[in-house]
Amino acid sequence: MDDKRTLIRLDDETSEDEDPVVPISIPAKPIETFGENRSEEMPTTSSANGAAHISGNNQNLLADDLPSLLEHNGPPPPVNTINGSAGNARNHINDSEPIFHLRSRTAAASTPNYESLDYEVCENTLFQEEQRRRLRERFSLRKDVIRWIIFIQIGIITALIACTIDIIIEELSELKYNFLKESVADNVPLSDATGRDLVIPFLYWILLSILPVAFGAAMVTYIEPITAGSGIPQVKSYLNGVKIPRIVRIKTLAVKAIGVITSVVGGLAGGKEGPMIHAGAVVAAGISQGKSTTFVKDFRVFKAFRDDHEKRDFVLGGGAAGVSAAFGAPIGGMLFSLEEAASFWNQNLIWRTLVASIISVFTLNIVLSAYHGLNDFTFTGLFNLGKFDQPLKFDYFELPIFMILGVTGGLLGAAWNSLNTKINNFRKRFIPWKFAKVIEAVVVAMLGVTLACLMIYFINDCRPLGNDPTIHPVQLFCEDNEYNAVAALWFQTPEATVRSLFHDPPGSHKILTLAMFTVVYYVLSCATFGLNVSLGVFIPTALVGAAWGRLLAMVTFYLFPEAEFLHPGKYALIGAAANLGGVLRMTISLSVILMETTGIESSFFFPLIIALISAKWVGDYFNEGIYDTQIQVNHVPMLPWEPLPQYKGLTAKEILSSPVVCIKLRDSAHYIYKVLKKCDHNGFPVVDNVIGDRRSEGRVCGIILRSQLIVILLKSLYVENKRFWLPETSIQTFRDVYPRYPSIKSVRKLDDKINYTVDLAMFMNPSPVRVNPHDSVPRIFQIFRALGLRHLLVINNENRIAGIITRRDFIYK
Amino acid sequence: MDDKRTLIRLDDETSEDEDPVVPISIPAKPIETFGENRSEEMPTTSSANGAAHISGNNQNLLADDLPSLLEHNGPPPPVNTINGSAGNARNHINDSEPIFHLRSRTAAASTPNYESLDYEVCENTLFQEEQRRRLRERFSLRKDVIRWIIFIQIGIITALIACTIDIIIEELSELKYNFLKESVADNVPLSDATGRDLVIPFLYWILLSILPVAFGAAMVTYIEPITAGSGIPQVKSYLNGVKIPRIVRIKTLAVKAIGVITSVVGGLAGGKEGPMIHAGAVVAAGISQGKSTTFVKDFRVFKAFRDDHEKRDFVLGGGAAGVSAAFGAPIGGMLFSLEEAASFWNQNLIWRTLVASIISVFTLNIVLSAYHGLNDFTFTGLFNLGKFDQPLKFDYFELPIFMILGVTGGLLGAAWNSLNTKINNFRKRFIPWKFAKVIEAVVVAMLGVTLACLMIYFINDCRPLGNDPTIHPVQLFCEDNEYNAVAALWFQTPEATVRSLFHDPPGSHKILTLAMFTVVYYVLSCATFGLNVSLGVFIPTALVGAAWGRLLAMVTFYLFPEAEFLHPGKYALIGAAANLGGVLRMTISLSVILMETTGIESSFFFPLIIALISAKWVGDYFNEGIYDTQIQVNHVPMLPWEPLPQYKGLTAKEILSSPVVCIKLRDSAHYIYKVLKKCDHNGFPVVDNVIGDRRSEGRVCGIILRSQLIVILLKSLYVENKRFWLPETSIQTFRDVYPRYPSIKSVRKLDDKINYTVDLAMFMNPSPVRVNPHDSVPRIFQIFRALGLRHLLVINNENRIAGIITRRDFIYK
């Protein structure tokens, strides 16, 4: 007999295998393997040992109810698609008949195989034992204190990452645009310049843009494609309960950080705000788990937080800390997370999130104050979008104007969303190759530079130096004491341009300049969002809005020169709010963020909210917000707040999936192994009172997850060898392998343990939520949504299983 | 046969009573009535007709399972206590053995009989029919539009009420304090004054205080006691799902409005903010129902919103509009509602609430601008607490000071809460008589005036006129060109005093003045909150905080005269925040409200939040926030966000109530009538497959509410006369009597309909939430809380009832 420790090794093949086993009735008929697909997929499984395989053609030989699942013959679906090998799944299924009900439906809808997270706490016997043990230890209080500590850590580390990204972007952009300015000054002879002289700076500019963009796009494409885009839709889906593979890994964070730096420095039309949420989320998930699977390092702390449910709350806090750091807006950041990202709220969570946000902004402030050499220890607030010097005022008769701006923002935003979706659909169809995706990003970067150069070349907008608002005045074709206002718009990061549009004194631009800029940037930002680079959509959207807002004020002032209320900065701000409302469809958080980042007074909330709400209503008439659109386009099974309208009249029996693969309370290891191999369901009802092997007619007494079954098989937790593992097995045994549960492939063939028995009584969740077949869908949706469920068992009045409902059933039926 | 219309009259006694009836086996034994208690309670029930009565002493004669409920003999509990006749209930139960399980437990805990609201939508056949019909009519969209319209109306009307209260208070206070000032000027000879000269103004002051206070207290005490206090705990309980009788009636609103005017004008230490939330809630409940039961007027609009679930959302919106109007702070108002009042959140609700708040503030602004004669059409914001002229700045080294202020606020707040609770407990025990309550309010008002006069008399704090911050400078004992700083603090409403403390220039008061003022007001406000008057706690709390905050700054400046950062207004603001945090234990909404009401910049959020969070944490160490304390003291079964710690290790079977009174799917009218008479449960499981009359062993197939059963009996919806009512009966039949369901007493004796049968299939809720006896309490608590349930059925694996869980079971066991 081996040392007991070896019993809980992952690849447990110890001597208790030789314990006496009860013989099991293995079919005597010659066994067929499944053919080439099958053997390719499971190189570790020798097809010679057929006992673990099931003949799809001979239902009656198997003495259990698995045959009911095998009504359709043909090759099986891929064995394990937890980590989202979506395309793979489709390849296999499209060339044959579907086998399992659930999978076939998924495949038919040609959606990727997103799995759910286990937000439902599995309160099995092991869990309850732990709870009872901990009740004595005042564990609850300790856990609470630790939770606060983690939230504070999340705030600090997120802020440090944000600072680093901030500073690097600022320094590199400074270098880049200074170099370009020098190059312009060197190459373009003043006043009598011709087009040809602009060629060298233009080429430099192209080079300095495509190099970082190509680097970033290549990293994103080849190393971690999940980092493409802003990350907000992904985080939102995650918080809703959808498992987005690899979303909260350290590698993702690294790629995201480098990706956002390269794209902003490369001059793409995007901002760093969205990625910051994602970065915060990764930090939160990492810290709260006290271990990194990427670095195979377990710090052995915070073990109690290792489940999806706890992690979710930390991720929300991290996201909030990320936005807060990105904008320097603690309350706005928290509200942003709540309004846009969170699917589950409660009071305590909100307070923790707020503290994380506050800590984050405070850390950011200290570091950035030190970096900018502000040594007078005065807390300034960051005012990312620049502080308005004098309080913005408005008159009642301006309210309709704000409303019109809001409506404009709603229309432009809805058009932007729809155009962007079309572009991305085009991309999906025609640019499938990785290399092409990188090239595409480079082409868009070049397009941006070219358009900017054309604007600079063709529009003659020279303004006198002196109270010039830009830090890099470019003389270009202008007179000696003038600077080029067009170049001023382009020769800085988008964030800095938003600042300029808000705060430049009236008369800083020609109407033509701003009009062209609006059009070019609208198109550019639309083409950019969806490229395989890490970029947020907030700043470009605000920029477009600020541009047309300012433009409208200028045009109106041009027509009615006596209208002195037309402060261009004020209208740029309202325009930005309207455009943001039209694209993102948020209201409260955006108004607070704009207020916190520009230091305006609270009485100006009112026009902002007017514009935002008008924009949201108008936009909502046409389509959904950009994040929700992206989630839909990617077929993420995200649960909305209310059930979809077409489900209103239905009942549970009309949407449930059946037949359901059940497992007996005491079932054979052999059967469980077969089931796991054969189907990729993630939850199996546990039944009792089974007559013979008609499992689906037993009384439901619980539910067990695929991941738990795999751990049971891996660690050989059988009835027959109980004495070896029982004293050492606790909920921790299952928690140790979280979150990357091994796949069934890692379970070696059962061989001699094939006749062992598994007793699920202590492992299963004995209290799954159950509903009746005639319950209405809005009602069960409410239950499913509010409790963050993964599986909902539908049972009839005799407590027999009628079907199972998962999140897909609320969306794709 | 009568006209069909009469069939659905409330007191239906039409001719179908004479239809042939199936004989029922009435016990042949002589029937005993229950004695004097019983016959007193049911004057309409003649004890001669014993068929409707049940002999408590003879269990075996009744051929059903009601006897199982009658294990203990004795007089029955009161028949109907829905409208909270709590004392009544106790009287009856205390003098005998308990009869019914649920009631006896309640009575034993000596808590009032609060009932739950039906936030769970009863999706019975009638409801589903309506849904299906409406699916065709695009009803959902129309309902949505109407919902928006209602929210907008709520905002406008709440604001108008708030304006009215505001203006009346302002005008009356102006009159009062002007009169007092004149009186002082007339009676007190300048400079060489003695105490005696102050007597006449003192008496005037007493008179002008006790008259309104006595009037207000009498109204509250004799007309509508529920209006006492701020109303926030009541609204919070309501939103949590507890039925607080009479809380959203028009009479309540009227008394509350008059009550708050009289108490503020009377000079009690209270504000109008809390009552505004309550006023908003009443407005919302009233408008959304489209009818007033008080005025017996049904406008026949908004019928679809007549259930507890819909009303809840409107009430939240109304509350938010109320706070917003009270403070002129739309975002703060919304967050206040969310943070303090709401128990159920979702995204759409938040948007609607925000719109109601915005509309409310806008309306308020227009009306008040017009009233104050600001005709320049500039939106000013209201800045209830006065706008800080120059931006508040702070240094990093002040952060620890802010934290210390926060800790101080937490300590003072916790002490205040505890002291206030002690005072209120004392009141409960020793001042039970209505008249005494009015007298008490008058005494406290006199005490306030006396203390103020003593302060004015003994403290000599004269300041030069000129840049005097007060509008009513009182010369009193001062020189000709001076005013009395002590009198300035007292001769205005508390809200105006907060404004003074925030904005008076440095050196406006002596240290002694402020120190005395702090102590006096601390004690006064503590004694005031809990009086039988309508008053909020926000303003006095802020006032105490502002006083000690300013005091601390002055003392420190006195000790370290070189510390120039010690701006007294800034520290008054932080002090107010800290004290509010210590008493109310909110953070986000308070910081936003303070910001919106004083117009400070968002960079000053940070110190506010620091102070608020420190105060909250320190305070939470000692006790709960004042609103939660009040809720607990009143034994309101309010469900917290998390299950109580002592419930952590329990399972459903340890907290459930049993035996449960069940009703058969087709049961006799007689039995139902008996059950309703005999017990006051509000939900009855409906069972099927009953062998004989052993109802509790049937299979559970639904749940029916007491109110539904009463309607069924009232309208004679029996199987035997189906043809008369079936075509005309819809969900509207039940909705028509909402929210004041008749009691069983209004059902006349069944007489000849005694043998009729009720078929519950179309009336019952066929999908009640069910749990298993071994489910853990935290888990079922989560279900109960998230879904806003009223009854949770505990069933075993054979689908037989094991018990029932209501909100009490999570709190009082």
From TrEMBL, chains A, B:
Region of interest: Disordered: 1-48
Subcellular location: Membrane
Gene3D superfamilies: CBS-domain, Clc chloride channel
A family per Pfam: CBS
GO molecular function, one term: chloride channel activity
Membrane-traversing stretches: 145-169, 202-223, 253-271, 314-337, 349-374, 394-417, 438-459, 511-531, 538-560, 572-595
CC per GO annotation: lysosomal membrane
CBS domain sequence ranges: 656-719, 764-813
Coiled-coil region list: none
Biased composition range(s): Basic and acidic residues: 1-12
Keyword RNA-binding on entry: no
Membrane disposition: Multi-pass membrane protein
Keywords, in A-Z order: CBS domain, Chloride, Ion transport, Membrane, Repeat, Transmembrane, Transmembrane helix, Transport
Highest rank taxon of the organism: Eukaryota
SUPFAM superfamilies for the chain: CBS-domain pair, Clc chloride channel
PANTHER family tied to this protein: CHLORIDE CHANNEL PROTEIN CLC FAMILY MEMBER, H(+)_CL(-) EXCHANGE TRANSPORTER 7
Family statement: Belongs to the chloride channel (TC 2.A.49) family.
Protein name in UniProt: Chloride channel protein
Organism, scientific name: Drosophila kikkawai
